[in-house]
Write a structure and sequence with these properties.
The structure holds two protein chains of two kinds.
Chain A (H helix, E strand, L loop, with lengths): L5 H17 L1 H11 L12 H9 L1 H28 L5 H25 L1
Helix pairs in contact in A: 1-4, 3-4, 4-5
Chain B lengths: L5 E8 L9 E8 L6 H12 L18 E4 L2 E4 L11 E5 L6 E3 L2 E2 L2 H9 L21 H11 L6 H5 L1 H5 L6 H11 L7 H8 L13 H5 L6 H20 L5
Parallel strand pairs in B: 1-5
Antiparallel strand pairs in B: 1-2, 3-4, 3-5, 6-7
Helix pairs in contact in B: 3-6, 6-9
Classes of the chains: A mainly alpha, B alpha+beta.
The complex binds iron/sulfur cluster and FE2/S2 (inorganic) cluster.
């Protein structure tokens, strides 16, 4: 029986799942609730500070991970969900979703490199 | 049997030598608080119609032979109490398997897959008896024990939409049994089993619906075994890409 190449996508999917489950909610809490409700000073999210964070190599890496992994997670999750809902055009669906994730990944890299 | 309450059992019948297609036949049986669906079927067989065919043996959820669809859900009929159902109970053979006769299904496909994953310990080298037992710590036992509890009842296959969609899928019970031996400290047959588990028809055909674990009467959690195998297979895959990887 042929060894499957699914691990390439599934590795990104599983990694993205971890990030989406553990990191994304905290980020929503900070950026979507804590700062707007003044639980954390608005200064924390000022343009200058965020720009400085995104300019730092470690900051870039962190931002890259929290953006690109969940993108691949979402792509693969949607592919499976489509399948579970009975949409059987698996290959075209997979291509559209993975290309979207790949474009998102490239856009993220280029935006971060420009900082 | 103190009261006169009865229930109707709608049994799917299929006798290949006379029936063109399966059909339902209804039997009225006494309602007994302590009865399970298997008791009701046995009542039919003993008192109303000796021709009804179904499998059973232990009547205590250990042999795994009495699985059937009860009101559309895969269940062990010896564990499904009449009191948990209405006055009409529909029993059908397990979904996703060909019907051999009435409630009896053909399970050759599963047996073939189960054999393919080599469900036995493959030791690196056979120790002579004089060298004593293969020792195992409680922690080593704990790692795989849950996956030994499978009774091959096939409820998980009847619940799995993926198996319905692609009958080539190796499926929950066989994959979780492969995982059980892979996790056993006495075993070194994982590479052989991975040829099946890490293939397209192996764990990668699973889309993690999780229905197998919902219906499993022994709480084996085959879905967990499959996801753990996916993680391990992914590690293998990336390791193989590293220099010196195989
Ligand atoms: S994993 Fe559970 S449902 Fe599946 S065959 Fe084994 S005991 Fe039955
Ligand atoms: S009769 Fe043995 S499991 Fe039901």
């Amino acid at each position: 029986m042929a060894k499957s190449h699914k691990p390439i996508i599934w590795g990104l999917f599983a990694g993205g799942g971890m990030v989406s489950a553990f990191v994304t909610p905290v980020m929503i809490l900070i950026t979507g609730l804590a700062v707007p409700f003044h639980l954390i000073s608005r200064e924390a999210m000022s343009y200058d500070r965020v720009h400085a964070f995104a300019s730092n190599p470690i900051g870039k890496l962190l931002l890259f991970v929290v953006i690109f992994l969940p993108a691949w997670h979402a792509a693969h999750r949607l592919r499976i969900t489509a399948h579970d809902f009975g949409l059987r055009q698996d290959i075209p669906i997979a291509v559209v979703l993975y290309v979207t994730a790949a474009v998102g990944t490239i856009m993220t890299i280029s935006a971060l490199l420009k900082m | 049997m103190s009261n006169d309450r009865t229930i109707t059992l709608e049994v799917m019948r299929y006798r290949p030598e006379t029936d063109a297609a399966p059909s339902f036949q209804s039997y009225v049986v006494p309602y007994v608080e302590e009865w399970v669906v298997l008791d009701a079927l046995n009542y039919v067989k003993d008192n109303l119609d000796t021709t009804v065919s179904y499998r059973w043996s232990c009547h205590m959820a250990v042999c795994g032979s009495c699985g059937m669809m009860i009101d559309g859900e895969p269940k062990l009929s010896c564990k499904a109490f009449l009191r948990d159902y209405g006055s009409k109970i529909r029993v059908e053979p397990l979904s996703h398997f060909p019907i051999e006769r009435d409630l009896v299904v053909v399970i050759d496909d599963f047996i073939e897959k189960f054999t393919r994953i080599r469900p036995y310990i493959i030791a690196q080298s056979e120790k002579p008896v004089s060298e004593g037992e293969y020792l195992q710590t409680p922690a080593q036992l704990h790692k795989y024990k849950q996956f030994t509890l499978c009774i091959n009842c096939l409820l998980c296959y009847a619940a799995c939409p993926q198996y319905a969609h692609n009958p080539e899928f190796v499926g929950p019970a066989a994959l979780s049994m492969a995982h059980r031996y892979n996790l056993d400290s006495r075993d070194s047959g994982r590479d052989l089993r991975q040829e099946v588990s890490a293939s397209h028809e192996g764990v990668w055909e699973c889309s993690f619906v999780g229905a197998c674990s919902d219906v499993c009467p022994k709480h084996v959690d085959p879905a967990a075994a499959i996801q753990q195998t996916k993680i391990a297979s992914t590690m293998d895959y990336y390791k193989a890409l590293l220099p010196g990887g195989k």
